[in-house]
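Holo prediction. Input below; ligand is S-adenosylmethionine.
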Amino acid sequence: MWQEVRRQKTWQRKTSADWNKRAAGFARRHKDSVYVKEFLKKLPLSPTMSVLDMGCGPGTLTIPLAREVKEITAVDFSSEMLAILTERAAGEGLDNITTRQGAWEDDWQALGLGQYDLIIASRSLAVDDLKGALDKLRQAARGWVFIGDRVGSGPFDPAMFAAIGRPFHPGPDYIYTVNILYQMGIHARLDFIDLPPGRSYKTRKEAISSWAWMFHDLTAAENDKLNHHLSERLAENKEGYWYLRDELCPSWAVISWRKKTG
Ligand SMILES: C[S@@+](CC[C@H](N)C(=O)[O-])C[C@H]1O[C@@H](n2cnc3c(N)ncnc32)[C@H](O)[C@@H]1O
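Structure of the complex:
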């Protein structure tokens, strides 16, 4: 069923090159976001822990986590995301982070990954083989696993698709992940993070290019429609940032389990 619904999705999976282009803007917008604070609150942390952050991005979670645990391995297939993470870690004098450039699809042993007390995979589980990816998490887990997964349309805004005249099917969300885990014999816990509206952009141009990034191969006509739609909805706040007036507030599912020992 997951594969069937995934085939219907009308958004394209992003490559590492796509994420490289997004890295700087993503890093700025997501540092200290409500999502980050709420996700961190749910983790069972201890100063002796080893952690794996899979699909770590620019270190939105890696950096605050590194202050709380013994060591953390941060993996992402985007070199630009890892470069920002490395720079931030150096800026904060953190020396317990190891970065690896790699993908869900790679051989994790060849990447030098082992087993960890805590694994997080936050908003990064965009794969063609979900069961294979979950199995990798299971094998690398010595203790807890926490996944941040999409609820419904997630960060996509159906109104944007309508505005440019494209159909919108979000594809499978967290409920499939929970059920595939069940088929694997894992009875996961489920929690949610409900976000307030809050995406802000330094300039109108950054807002428009950020939304354009979500689409694949925008035609000139579609680009015009997107620009027009956004121009009507973008407003400047007191701090001089741009935000969408009627932005949808996405929720994220937090799926977790603890490996049984013995
Ligand atoms: C939305 S960002 C999330 C970053 C961070 N985990 C967070 O929650 O703020 C998604 C990240 O997953 C990475 N990613 C996407 N697909 C991936 C794949 N197949 N293998 C490794 N990393 C991937 C992207 O490069 C990007 O940095």
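The radius of gyration is 19 Å. That is the main takeaway for now.
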